[in-house]
């Protein structure tokens, strides 16, 4: 079984709930190990807007939602009661916002000029590395989507640009991945979705 | 218009928090040497050599961790150091062994049954050492900036800049973080880690790049490399949690209802069974290790017969901690029955116990203890005052004479003296009665007190009217 089949099989086994709301299709998966996955798609374009995970730690406590795609817009002021410290709002903010044909990451608040950035691919660890010449920012991240289907990275697919204090990294989705996405969307459209305003029970 | 003069503006001082002094705050261990022989005076412990040696043996047993469910009873008159021995054991066990200390009366509550309270206490005393992945922030401090409001009161705000060899990040600090950074004495050039889950700060050392030839530094100053890569890292750490904590995590009502349910109250036995199974699984896989701890119940005669029979059963479980009890009762009624029994504990439970007894202190021991307490409370006392106080301690009680230390010190301060003298002791001795003098006083003036006539005239008859 290759990576794509494995992932599709895992999604099939999960318990799914679907809901249309605010022009978005919201899908919630619960996997057998009680890990939760929530996705939000734009109904018109089919773009993935949010994908977030909630895992349990070893002792069984639920951890907060982890955003894979999209930005956490919840009030983060009291995100952690014990850690009385937040990253300053002037720091670079890293988020992923995909288009239909490409994975895309946006790092806002990057005030340095375009020639300051080095973006490379570590093929062994299947990770993208962002470096800065002035040693102000560094990030190493994987593409979880490709990690799940066990696919390597190709430097040819990647490009980056800098404008308006934002560094944008684009990685074109491989064709195998695009076809898998099609299968998932067609499967999801089959699941019965409740619309906003739908009431579960009939009020007499 | 009035402007505050210089003297009116409160002086702002940074103070490291002072520990409050408790009755047993001078105890730092059992005071035994390597061969478990008790030293006469050590680690805040004085005398009670036999009891301490016995406690030391039990401590060895706990440390080896092989034996579950042994029970020990410390019995002795009031003020002979029972709680002190238990505290000493707790201190000697160190941070990583769970030590739960409760009083016998604590288990009686309307919210929880007695056995539930006892079960929780038992499970609090069993630790699980387990590996867990946590997120930490590790970096070199570039700058700490703390702004105090001009008025001297109100919340402080601060900024912390951390860097690795590759990057730099600025953090906004809250009040709590500022306090812990100042108490850890973190300064620019230190390499620190911050645990994201708990907010705990650890100083790893100074950065090599900050090392200068003529810096004055202590012998324990360690130099470390500036960390590489990202500031936030995932790291596997081993830590000890108690079974009870795992129970609570897994029994909490999930979702927003948790906000309203508040405390956990009783924990379902199914949850406990699940967790026991899980822990057994972890143990087999080598992921976790069980650390049996100590449960100490003070004033154990306050437990009733139901609790005792529960304890009989609970001690047989292989997950039982070492169980230490203390009581100051002799032969007395077992609570909840009409039977008399030694220490107010049923014979069948007594049979399972190892009993350590403490004896009243000798005169020179009392003197030693008073001396230690004087040091603990920062009181200077002249030798003859100490002799007088020792005498008082012998004739009344040790606790009463310890009380007099603080009060005499205050009296001494009021007369602007530096050393507590006999006069100060005499003065507070007349001001505060000890138990014996107080009852004498009551007997003498019995007639003048409220309700005294009830007991003296009609009390006994009323009790027997309806039988």
TrEMBL record, chain A:
Pfam families: DPCD (PF14913)
Recorded superkingdom: Eukaryota
Biological source species: Brachionus calyciflorus
Protein name: Protein DPCD
Similarity comment: Belongs to the DPCD family.
From TrEMBL, chain B:
GO BP terms in the entry: DNA repair
Lineage: Eukaryota, Metazoa, Spiralia, Gnathifera, Rotifera
GO CC terms in record: nucleus
Family in the record: Belongs to the RuvB family.
Subcellular location as annotated: Nucleus
Name the UniProt record assigns to this protein: RuvB-like helicase
InterPro entries: AAA+_ATPase, P-loop_NTPase, RuvB-like, RuvB-like_C, RuvBL1/2_DNA/RNA_bd_dom, TIP49_P-loop
Enzyme Commission (EC) number: 3.6.4.12
PANTHER family: RUVB-RELATED REPTIN AND PONTIN (PTHR11093)
């Amino acid at each position: 079984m290759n990576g794509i089949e494995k992932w599709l099989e895992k999604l099939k086994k999960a318990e799914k709930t679907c809901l249309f709301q605010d022009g978005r299709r919201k899908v919630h998966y619960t996997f057998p190990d009680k890990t939760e996955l929530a996705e939000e798609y734009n109904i018109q374009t089919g773009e993935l807007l949010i994908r977030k995970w909630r895992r349990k730690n070893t002792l069984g406590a639920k951890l907060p939602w982890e955003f894979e795609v999209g930005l956490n817009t919840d009030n983060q002021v009291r995100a952690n009661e014990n850690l009385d410290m937040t990253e300053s709002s002037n720091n670079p903010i890293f988020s992923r916002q995909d288009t239909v044909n490409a994975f895309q990451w946006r790092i806002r608040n990057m005030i340095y000029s375009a020639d300051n950035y080095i973006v490379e691919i570590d093929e062994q660890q299947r990770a993208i590395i962002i470096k800065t010449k002035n040693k102000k920012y560094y990030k190493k991240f994987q593409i979880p989507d490709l990690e799940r289907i066990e696919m390597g990275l190709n430097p040819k697919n990647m490009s980056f640009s800098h404008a308006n204090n934002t560094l944008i990294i684009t990685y074109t989705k491989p064709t195998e991945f695009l076809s898998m996405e099609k299968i998932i969307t067609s499967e999801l459209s089959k699941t019965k979705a409740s619309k906003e305003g739908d009431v579960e029970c009939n009020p007499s | 218009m009035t402007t505050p003069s210089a003297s009116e503006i409160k002086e702002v001082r940074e103070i490291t928090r002072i520990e409050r002094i408790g009755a047993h705050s001078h105890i730092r261990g059992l005071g035994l040497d390597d061969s478990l022989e008790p030293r006469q005076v050590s680690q805040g412990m004085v005398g009670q050599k036999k009891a301490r040696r016995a406690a030391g043996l039990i401590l060895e047993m706990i440390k080896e961790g092989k034996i579950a469910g042994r029970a020990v009873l410390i019995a002795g008159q009031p003020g002979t150091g029972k709680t002190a021995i238990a505290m000493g054991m707790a201190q000697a066990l160190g941070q990583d062994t769970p030590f739960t200390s409760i009083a016998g009366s604590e288990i009686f509550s309307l919210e929880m049954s007695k056995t539930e309270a006892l079960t929780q206490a038992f499970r609090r005393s069993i630790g699980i050492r387990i590996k867990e992945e946590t997120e930490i922030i590790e970096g070199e401090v570039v700058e700490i900036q703390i702004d105090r409001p001009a008025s001297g009161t109100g919340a402080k705000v601060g900024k912390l800049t951390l860097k690795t060899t590759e990057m730099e990040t600025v953090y906004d600090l809250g009040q709590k973080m500022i306090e812990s950074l100042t108490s850890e004495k973190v300064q620019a050039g230190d390499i620190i880690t911050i645990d994201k889950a708990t907010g705990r700060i650890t100083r790893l050392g100074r950065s090599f790049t900050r090392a200068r030839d003529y810096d004055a530094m202590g012998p324990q100053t360690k130099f470390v490399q500036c960390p590489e890569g990202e500031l936030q890292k995932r790291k596997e750490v081993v830590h000890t949690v108690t079974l009870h904590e795992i129970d609570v995590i897994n029994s909490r009502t999930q979702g927003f209802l948790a906000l309203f349910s508040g405390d956990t109250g009783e924990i379902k036995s199914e949850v406990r069974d699940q967790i026991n199974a899980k822990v057994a699984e972890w143990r087999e896989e080598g992921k976790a290790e069980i650390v049996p701890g100590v449960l100490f119940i003070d004033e154990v005669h306050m437990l009733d017969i139901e609790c005792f029979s529960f304890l009989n059963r609970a001690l047989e479980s292989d997950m039982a901690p070492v169980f230490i009890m203390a009581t100051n009762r002799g032969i007395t009624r077992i609570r909840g029955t009409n039977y008399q029994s030694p220490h107010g504990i049923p014979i069948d439970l007594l049979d399972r116990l190892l009993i350590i007894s403490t004896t009243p202190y000798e005169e020179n021991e009392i003197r030693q203890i008073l001396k230690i307490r004087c040091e603990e409370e920062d009181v200077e006392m002249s030798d003859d005052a100490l002799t007088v106080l020792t005498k008082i301690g012998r004739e009344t009680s040790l606790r009463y004479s310890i009380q007099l230390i603080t009060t005499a010190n205050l009296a001494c301060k009021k007369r602007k003296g530096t050393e507590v003298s006999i006069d100060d002791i005499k003065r507070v001795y007349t001001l505060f009665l000890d138990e014996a003098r107080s009852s004498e006083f009551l007997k003498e003036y019995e007639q003048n007190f409220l309700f005294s006539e009830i007991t003296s005239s009609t009390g006994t008859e009323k009790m027997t009217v309806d039988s």
